[in-house]
Specification:
- This protein has helices at about 1-15, 15-35, 40-50, 55-65, 75-90, 95-120, 125-145, 155-160, 170-190, 190-200, 200-205, 210-240, 250-260, 270-290, 295-330, and strands at about 165, 170.
- The protein is mainly alpha-helical.
- The protein has a domain at about 50-245.
- Strands 1-2 form a two-stranded antiparallel ribbon.
């Protein structure tokens, strides 16, 4: 009986969306391992994260935004604007440390601008962030025009290219530290509970005394700040900036969050699910690279994943709901 009970508990976990993601991740890892003996090496695993580190950092904050029943389409453009702002200031002779501070301030102000229009003016986040997606990208191109800016200080490039603790770079450490902090905030704090409540029903949250406008302003401001930070990491990793930096990154970011089980309608999802989806997307891209699949096809696969990430959780819920109805009827 004890063994049967243990098996039932394990099967129940597998039936959850996160359980499905774990199984999918194991399958992809086994396939990649079969494709290349180099896949599981430390250098390849670090490189796997490093090539998409900016996206996965922003995905953590995007999880909060979508759980709150909103969306931020401007994150990729903000990353580009931040990188170009730093490059422009550095080329103009501004001290690099001051340029970093100003760049983060730009992200803070840009995110707050989104938040004000969404939270206090009452405009839909889809419309506002679509407009700033275009606006931020336009500003980035104005700052650097069509030229590339390079020759950053060696210490700045090292932040994105060299290991800080052994072979592990600063950006990867920052990702896991940010994940730990945000996990505590989302799962163990009043702010996290308010995020879920507002995403489930904004009117109920307001009647409960939650300042929904202030909450949304904080979330979008944080999104802008973290996107600017990610833009700086991109500039450090590549060692150069152009007006098209991080173009289209929002597709991968939103896919990771939705694939992780965060409902596009808000009110549900976890950072653990987002982390599992991040690992799936990174390993999937790595596997396609091992097979010499072109970037355009990889983008198409990610687009299919985005559609699946919206449809599959709903189909799973419908199946489980139907099963429960049948069980109730037979009882």
């Amino acid at each position: 009986m004890a063994e049967r009970s243990t098996f039932s508990a394990m099967w129940a976990r597998v039936q959850t969306w996160e359980g499905f993601l774990v199984c999918a991740l194991i399958f992809i890892v086994l396939m990649n391992t079969a494709l290349s003996p180099q896949f599981l090496t430390v250098s390849n695993q670090i490189n796997l994260f490093q090539l998409s580190i900016e996206k996965i950092i922003v995905a953590l904050v995007m999880t909060f935004v979508i759980i709150n029943a909103e969306i931020d389409l401007s994150v990729g453009s903000m990353m580009g604007l931040a990188a170009c702002t730093f490059g422009f200031l550095f080329q103009a002779g501004v001290d690099p440390v001051l340029a970093i501070a100003v760049t983060l301030l730009v992200g803070l102000v840009g995110g707050a601008l989104n938040g004000v229009f969404i939270a206090y003016v009452g405009l839909p986040s889809l419309v506002v962030t679509l407009a700033t997606l275009i606006g931020f990208r336009g500003l980035a191109r104005v700052l650097v025009e069509d030229r590339g800016i390079t020759d950053f200080p060696e210490w700045f490039d090292n932040l994105g290219q060299q290991g800080l603790i052994g072979p592990v770079p600063f950006a990867l450490i920052a990702f896991f530290v940010l994940f730990a902090i945000l996990w505590v905030v989302l799962q163990r704090s009043g702010f996290g509970r308010k995020t879920y409540v507002i995403g489930t029903n904004r009117e109920v949250a307001a009647f409960a005394g939650i300042d929904t406008a202030k909450h949304k302003l904080i979330l979008f401001t944080a999104s802008g700040l973290v996107s600017a930070f990610a833009g700086l990491l991109y500039a450090a990793r590549v060692g150069a900036v152009r007006g098209d930096v991080a173009l289209g990154f929002e597709l991968d970011i939103i896919t990771m969050v939705l694939l992780g089980g965060v409902s596009i309608f808000g009110g549900s999802g976890t950072l653990l699910g987002t982390l599992l989806a991040i690992l799936i997307v990174l390993n999937l891209r790595n596997g396609m690279a091992l097979l010499n699949i072109t970037g355009h096809i990889q983008t198409g696969v990610i687009g299919i994943l985005l559609i699946a990430s919206v449809l599959l959780p709903r189909l799973q819920l419908s199946t489980l709901f139907g099963a429960r109805k049948r069980q109730e009827g037979s009882a």
